[in-house]
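Bug: token stream looks shifted between consecutive jobs. Job 1:
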Amino acid sequence: FVRGIEYNVQIDPAIIMNPKVWEATGHVANFHDPLVDCKYCHARFRADQIIHEQKPELDVDGMTQDELNDMMQSGEIICPTCGKNQFTPIRQFQMMFKTFIGVTEGKQSEVYLRPETAQGIFVNFKNVMRTTRRKLPIGICDIGKAFRNEITPGNFTFRMREFEQMEIEFFFKPGEDEKWFEFYKENCKSFVEKLGLKDEKVRFRDHEPAELAFYSKATTDIEYDFPTLGWGELMGIACRSDYDLGRHQETSKEDLTYLDPETNERYLPHVVEPSFGLDRLMLALCCDAYDVESLNDGKDSRVVMHFAPELAPYTVAVMPLSNKLNEEAKKVFDMVHEEVDALFDTTGSIGKRYRREDAIGTPLCVTFDFQSLEDHMVTVRERDSMSQERVKIDELNSYIHNFLAKNRVR
């Protein structure tokens, strides 16, 4: 996703950032969630979320605060905790975590944990252009932690206060917005397909004007149909124009324009931003891969994670049939582990070990038995088909690499 595009470079910006950065971008003024409390049990909720859960036919993203408030006060929304329908008026809740630097706490030492990785890229734009000596277009990429003071985190890893983001800020000449917006829509679609997510579980959704973020001219989400949540956002592709660089330039008085060496024209680059939530992406992959298979005419079953082999936690598990074989089996493990991620599993019966590896998605299990001492071969079992074959130990690494090559996702 990063290295496959020639324009991209990667940086690692700061997590704790000067509050002026967030004032410049509008986060201090605008990065809020609508908060309500139940008047009876005092449970706290995000107004837009509770309305969406109980009135899915409404376009919650397009509703104004007054419209959200009217719905909360209408008596049609029920408190999930106590069943009453009386709520406090909506008040805006700042989602950025505030902390202090230095030995004293006060306005002068106040800072924020970043609620997104993007702004660390924008404030380093000039540094990156100077040090890399690149021309536009250029994609500046980052992967790292972001922090949001969510009112009601939940749904496992779908909504958390601390999460991992992958973002690219792609800078280009003004007027090319549609070209690069469509380029990254196709690129992100290809990326999701290569992960092996089922086609029927993935969709693109264009944002309506009323639901656009304050910095965005256009946004498209890639959504996944989660088993219990329904459709949820995996990533967004936003056309941010020159909003961010313009705000930082205005506030800092630093010249962030780009001098085009071909036209001698100076301008503020425009930006398209693909932004992934890595935790949500991993949750989607787990949901997509999970299966419970019936075996022996329904008399038995197994849990199996059908991960693409390159996404599985381990590629191979090496298992000695008996503890008496541990020393020789460990030699096979050491050989395999030099090539791929591998696990040495010695506990329990072979059948139980197979089931354990199926449940975490290990594609191949290698069993070292007493016959292996004589014929220098091992039994290789494939996860999905459960088929087994004998393979020479000195050909095992080649066998594994051939398996991976044949089973790469699209």
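Job 2, same session, no restart:
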Amino acid sequence: EATSDQALIDNLNATAARRATLGIAGSFNTSGNDGSITRFGWKAQNKSLLIFSGEAYNVEMGVSNELFPNERSAVAGCAFNSSPEDKTHSVNESGSATGTASEMSSDALNFALFARLSAPPTPTPTTSSTLAGASLFSSIGCSLCHTPTLTTGQSPYTGMSNVSYNPYSDFALHKMGVDLQDGIAQGAASGKQFRTAPLWGLGQRLFFLHDGRTSDLIQAIQAHSSSGSEAIKVIGNYNRLKASQKQDLLNFLRSL
């Protein structure tokens, strides 16, 4: 969230020449209000963790809130609340108007703060295999979209300014081919485009891809190579690796 738009633009520009040789484009989704780069969600449709939290609370759980006040009816004739179910509180559960920040804040705001202040996933200890895999990750072209390191700008939160971190994402949109397209357009993102999924914490995930269609990391990799995908040549590079090299790359990914 604290990474500046310019840092994201500079990162994409820095890899433009090599990406072009592999048929990789890349563009950013932007806010319809101010034109700034949006970066959260499968389509990078949300500008901030607060907006992302409010949307997820409403769309995924059906809880209306101050940011997304519209109810989502799953049953015909459902009687809607006249006000959002989640909102900033004037008093806490004990009836006090001087509760703590978390007691008085809306759930959506607390969700955003939780995400913002959580520590990043901790990689497993480095081995010779994961080191070799990291080198292959770069050499075959994975890192051109899954950017290993970015740096924050100024942040209002202590300890978060000018910090390098490892999301393994350029937060840009890329066409991922007919097998992965979902037909959903959000902002500048078409049904064929997705934000580069951050890979940090990959080793702790049970399911992969935007629809969780597989728990097999190899299948997730191969799913990047359908017709119209910008990753076809990169997956071709992966497929030409020796079996031992593929294992090193998988070990690296599972270490994140």
